[in-house]
Design brief:
heterotrimer; B: mainly alpha; 74% helix; C: 438 residues; mainly alpha; MetI-like fold; 18 helices; 3 strands; Phosphate transport system permease protein PstA (chain C); cell membrane (chain C); MetI-like (chain C)
């Protein structure tokens, strides 16, 4: 696939020259606009997602952060009325190019949802689902290995190893969410999108998932939507602030939380609105 | 005075009570104390007091006097004496009743003093357009005259009583009107009882179904043994001549049950895959435009009465399949015009919209999160459907299939027209078989004598059918309910 | 994928384009979609075939061949003994077909003395001529002795032949119309006195053993009576029951039982209701067989669950905020229900009722058991008199052998379907028009 935009090429080249690998742009959105029917939900969003970093999208509810997230693996396609304009690239390829296959894209850009949504199947089957449909394992031992390593990485293996064949819906909320993360990891995606993954969890389970996100950063590029600024501060390296469909400010998390440029960001992180 | 007149009179008293009550309540409201209830509630309360007890009495009196009359007539008829040609007292009583009804058409003079013999009376009645059974006996004439007289007396007494109760109610209601009287609460309490009564009709219907069939069935098993019915493999009820007691028939349920289940099976083989796939397509793939056209069309298919399907099978599909098989086999057709296949196919098509609308509901009840979870992992739509949605919806779909199967088993008109009447045990779907419902219709249409096993067997078949479908329905409804609760 | 971005990155999952079997999977996807399209097409194609088959057989039933003849109401034929002034039976029993036959003989120019030819005229005109001419004479005896043009129905076979439904190339002995009759038919058609007219009789006649004089008049009236009874009973009872269950009843064993009962009754085979009607309404309560009243009661019991289920759904769809608002203003619960909830739920209730009525209108099986398969020639003046119903009339015609009955039957199906479609479309339109999203 040789379609690369010039910017992506430049940035990739410059990354290489700087020798700072974690500055590689994994995904880039340019002038992204989203319409739900007549209503415009996102306005000209330009945002880069850097490789092996956690990018947090924050902002008050209804600000468009989830909408943007769902553009990154084209989950908006499943909503009839939704229309996306602008350009989003993954490794320099336009993911809305007609030649791009949405199934393959989603295998590369996995997603974890707000509410844990394990399938009504066993724990094992939940994790094995992705590898199975994509044909990632040639035989049963390989599949077993993928399932085990995914559960390991999601930090769930020790808790469930004795009941792999019990229904995934029987786990606690936090465990269910980690199961969903394991399910996403099992496909070996390059990017994992997380849509408020902790909003349905209690504080202890949240802490566990946050730890996990930090560990996963080693191997995956992560974009997380969160409602909680503390969470963004804890887990992310970069933060993007959305408001009313506009990207207000974007930058390193530390800077965003200590010295934001925009007044709205300041107001939001100090709790004036949200 | 007929019941109808009394009914109207009671309503009239009620109406008067309503207006008087409202007037009175309005007059009492002098703007001092705030009345508890608005004036029309006082009116309604008076209306209800004037009508409800009276109408209740009307019903009780109506039923009661009929019962009394019946026993009165029976007691006057000679006990199965040698001269009475009619062995059956019920038949004699019913002949007497029709005679009494016939006499009412004559002018008053003749009706009270009719000719003594039936042969003289018959032409008189015939001129009034009354045709009576020739079995009517002379001795019934005085009994009939007496019955009419008694009935007249009963209705006069009843009418007077009812009107007194009604007027009394009205007076009571009017006398209760006071500024702080809680007329609204009274009216509403009565309304609540009315609502409650309406909702018990469902239970009464079920009880009615069970009792009505149960009694006749018990009656049936007095002359036919359990084993003959439930385990018999031959169905040959042999209509006996009316009145004679011979019940030599064979009443084997097995061939009917086999035919019922076989045809239902063929129908389900057609309906389930097609209906399920349609539902999947409609809920997961179809664009809103396609849905807007196809959905009403499928509803239309569901709205076509089964008789139309049956006739289509009888005049079009059956002959077509017969001729087709004749063409294929070179002369002799191996598919009969009425066959398990024809009936099953047409019934299957009839059930397609049933399966599809039931499973459509079930499939759309699967939460969106399941779809998103699967699509988010890079599954294609069909993979999502096959591996996530359908397994998740499976219990509900099983329930839907059971409900459909119960429809298939109880379906009547298609099989009456397309399946045939021959009660055979065969595995060949190209031959005719018959079903429980067909036999119920066969045994109960046309002229029949009610108390012979040949007609009573229809009730035994009916209760079997009811029990069969009841178990399936309740089980299916239970599954579907549990399924829905899971996702609520 | 480019190599550039791969450089210097360690530990990420395989970045090279993985083979995830896309080709195979998309083929499966297309196949699956195709199955869906096929499934829907099967249903729709069948619907189309069935409608085409019925309409093509039935549309001709709406025209009927009649012969316009100048009938001379000859007193010698009607009243040969001249006693009509004293004996009213004379006019009833007169030989009216003879009048029509004479007119036909004159019209065709046959020699009245040629008995052999005259005999062939039998079966050319419908026997319905008797009743038709009698009605004319009884209504106005002064027409005796005059001559007037009367449209007389042709016999069913002539009607079929004229519509081209009888294959005239078949040997004469093996078809139902003779060559002579065909020749007459053509002769009359040529001068315009034999022609097809709109078939009013299909809508007005009662039962008859002759296809050309049988119609659905009694069935339509019977069905109307029954629909009226169902509407009058099932709607109020159903709404009352739903209100109780949805708004007043606390969840208890008893309401659970009612609920299960209603859902089950909705799925009980219709024929079972017929058995109920036969043994309760006819045998126990002594209501007359074949009466629309009994049919109406049976259909009411059948329709109730449908109406209750639809009404409860409509009531449940009214948001609780409306209830709180009404109660908060001091309305009693009963006032809240009848003044606020019920009007808001009315469109839903109406839709459910229409659908229930449409189902009741097409229902046949239970009516067979309560004796509505009856030969009823006269209009029932009350619901207590014998009547038939539309679908039952169709069923009875389906059991007749003559092809002219098949034509009438198909015509009757068309009429029934038009009724049902009108009802269903009304329901769909109502639902769309009043559908409210809270």
């Amino acid at each position: 696939m040789n379609i690369m935009t010039e910017t992506a090429l430049e940035s990739a080249v410059s990354d290489k020259m700087n020798g700072t690998p974690n500055e590689t742009i994994k995904m880039r959105g340019q002038k992204v606009c989203v319409f739900y029917g007549e209503k415009q939900a996102l306005f000209d969003v330009n945002l880069d997602v850097r490789e092996n970093q956690v990018t947090a999208l924050i902002g008050p509810s209804g600000c468009g952060k989830s909408t943007f997230l769902r553009c990154l693996n084209r989950m908006n396609d499943t909503i009839d009325a939704a229309r996306v304009a602008g350009e989003i690239t993954l490794d320099g390829e336009d993911i809305y190019d007609p030649r791009i296959d949405v199934v393959e894209l989603r295998a590369r850009v996995g997603m974890v949802f707000q509410k844990p949504n394990p399938f009504p199947k066993s724990i094992y089957e939940n994790v094995a689902y992705g590898p199975r449909i994509h044909g990632l394992a040639r035989n049963k031992p390989e599949l077993d290995a993928i399932v085990e390593s995914s559960l390991q990485r999601a930090g769930l293996f020790n808790e469930v190893k004795d009941r792999l064949h019990e229904p995934g819906t029987g786990l606690s909320g936090g465990q269910q969410q980690r199961l969903c993360i394991a399910r996403a990891i099992a496909v070996s995606p390059e990017v994992i999108l997380m849509d408020e993954p902790c909003s349905a969890l209690d504080p202890i389970a949240t802490a566990r998932v946050e730890e996990l996100i930090d560990e996963l950063r080693q191997n995956y590029t992560i974009v997380i939507v969160t409602h909680s600024m503390q969470q963004a501060a804890r887990v992310s390296q970069r933060t993007a602030m959305f408001h009313l469909g506009y990207l207000v400010e974007e930058g390193e998390t530390d800077k965003m939380f200590t010295n934001p440029d925009d007044k709205r960001t300041q107001d939001y992180i100090t709790g004036r609105f949200g | 005075m007929s019941l109808m007149t009394v009914f109207v009179a009671v309503l009239a008293i009620g109406a008067v009570a309503f207006f008087l009550g409202r007037q009175r309540a309005l007059a009492q409201d002098d703007g001092g104390i705030k009345p508890h209830s608005r004036a029309h509630y006082h009116g309604w309360w008076a209306f209800l007091l004037a009508t409800m007890p009276a109408l209740l009495l009307l019903v009780v009196w109506g039923v009661g006097s009929n019962v009394y009359l019946e026993s009165h007539v029976r007691s006057q008829l000679p006990q199965q004496s040698a001269e009475s040609a009619l062995a059956n007292p019920a038949l004699a009583a019913s002949l007497t009743k029709s005679l009494a009804n016939g006499l009412r058409r004559l002018d008053a003079q003749t009706a009270t003093n009719p000719p003594a013999t039936f042969s003289e009376l018959q032409p008189l009645l015939a001129t009034r357009g009354v045709a009576l059974a020739p079995d009517t006996q002379d001795y019934m004439i005085p009994v009939a005259v007496d019955a009419n007289r008694t009935q007249d007396w009963l209705s006069v007494i009843g009418a007077v009583l009812i009107l007194i109760v009604s007027a009394g109610g009205a007076v009571l209601g009017l006398s209760q009107i006071q500024v702080r009287a809680r007329a609204r609460n009274n009216v509403e309490k009565l309304m609540l009882w009315g609502l409650l009564a309406a909702s018990t009709i469902a239970i009464l219907t079920t009880i009615g179904i069970i009792l009505s069939m149960l009694f006749q069935t018990i009656h049936f098993f007095e002359s036919v043994s359990f084993t003959n019915f439930f385990f018999g493999t031959v169905w040959d009820p042999r209509f006996a001549a009316a009145g004679s007691d011979s019940s030599e028939g064979q009443f084997g349920l097995i061939p009917l049950l086999a035919g019922t289940l076989y045809i239902a099976l063929v129908a389900m083989l057609v309906a389930v895959p097609i209906g399920l796939m349609s539902a999947v397509y409609m809920s997961e793939y179809a664009s809103p435009k396609v849905r807007a056209v196809v959905k009403p069309a499928l509803e239309l298919l569901a709205g076509i009465p089964t008789i139309v399907y049956g006739i289509f099978a009888l005049v079009a599909l059956g002959p077509f399949l017969r001729d087709l098989s004749a063409a294929l086999a070179g002369g002799t057709s191996f598919i009969q015009a009425q066959s398990v296949l024809t009936a099953g196919l047409v019934m299957g098509v009839m059930l397609i919209p049933v399966v599809s609308s039931l499973s459509d509901d079930i499939i759309t009840a699967v939460p969106r999160a399941m779809r998103d979870g699967s699509l988010g992992l890079g599954a294609t739509r069909s993979e999502t459907i096959k591996r996530v949605i359908l397994p998740a919806a499976l219990p509900g779909i099983v329930g839907a299939i059971l409900l459909t199967a119960s429809r298939a088993i109880g379906e009547t008109m298609i099989v009456v027209l397309a399946a045939g009447v021959a009660a055979k045990l065969t595995l060949n779907p190209f031959e005719a078989m018959t079903t429980i419902t067909v036999k119920i219709v066969n045994q109960l249409t046309g002229d029949l004598e009610f108390n012979s096993p040949q007609t009573l067997v229809a009730f035994a078949l009916g209760i079997t059918l009811f029990a069969l479908t009841l178990v399936m329905n309740i089980f299916a409804l239970y599954i579907v309910r549990k399924y829905r609760e899971q996702y609520e | 994928m480019t190599d550039i971005s791969m450089d210097g990155i360690a530990g990420t999952s395989a970045r090279a384009r993985r083979d995830i079997g896309l080709k195979r999977r998309y083929a499966a996807e297309r196949r699956f979609r195709l199955y869906g399209v096929l499934a829907i097409s099967v249903g729709l194609v069948f619907l189309a075939i069935m409608l085409v088959s019925i309409v093509s057989k039935g549309y001709t039933a709406f025209w009927q061949t009649t012969v316009t003849l100048p009938i001379t109401f000859d007193a010698k034929v009607i009243d040969p003994s001249g006693k009509r002034a004293t004996d009213p039976n004379v006019l009833i029993r007169a030989n009216y077909p003879k009048l029509a036959e004479n007119a036909l003989i004159a019209k065709l120019g046959i020699d009245p003395g040629d008995k052999a030819t005259v005999r062939k005229l039998k079966g050319f005109l419908s026997d319905g001529a008797r009743a038709q001419l009698r009605t004319l004479v009884m209504a106005d005896p002064s027409i005796i002795g005059t001559t007037r043009n009367v449209d007389i129905l042709a016999a069913a076979n002539i009607d079929s032949a004229f519509k081209g439904q009888i294959d005239l190339s078949v040997d004469e002995s093996r078809r139902k119309v003779s060559d002579q009759q065909v020749a007459w038919m053509k002769q009359l058609a040529a001068d315009g006195s034999l022609a097809e007219h709109f078939n009013k009789g299909l809508f007005t006649f009662g039962a008859s053993s002759r296809p050309e004089t049988s119609g659905m008049g009694v069935a339509i009236i019977g069905s109307l009576y029954m629909m009226g009874i169902v509407l009058l009973l099932a709607l109020p009872i159903g709404v009352a029951a739903s209100i109780y269950l949805e708004e007043f009843a606390r969840k208890s064993r008893f309401t659970d039982l009612i609920e299960v009962n209603i859902n089950n009754l909705a799925a009980v085979p219709s024929i079972v209701f017929g058995l109920l009607g036969l043994s309760v309404f006819i045998n126990f309560l002594g209501l007359p067989r074949s009466a629309s009243l009994v049919g109406g009661l049976v259909l009411t019991l059948m329709t109730l669950p449908t109406i209750i289920i639809a009404t409860r759904a409509a009531l449940a769809a009214v948001p609780p905020s409306i209830r709180s608002a009404a109660l908060g203003l001091g309305a009693s619960k009963m006032q809240m229900v009848f003044q606020h909830i019920l009007p808001l739920a009315a469109p839903g209730i109406l839709t459910g009722t229409i659908i229930g009525l449409a189902r009741a209108l097409g229902e046949t099986a239970p009516l067979l058991l309560i004796g509505m398969v009856a030969f009823v020639a006269d209009y029932p003046s009350t619901p207590l008199q014998p009547a038939t119903a539309l679908p039952v009339q169709i069923y009875m015609w389906a059991n007749e052998a003559e092809r002219a009955f098949v034509e009438r039957m198909s015509g009757a199906i068309i009429i029934l379907l038009v009724f049902l479609m009108a009802m269903n479309i009304t329901a769909i339109v109502l639902r769309r028009r009043f559908e409210r999203r809270w």
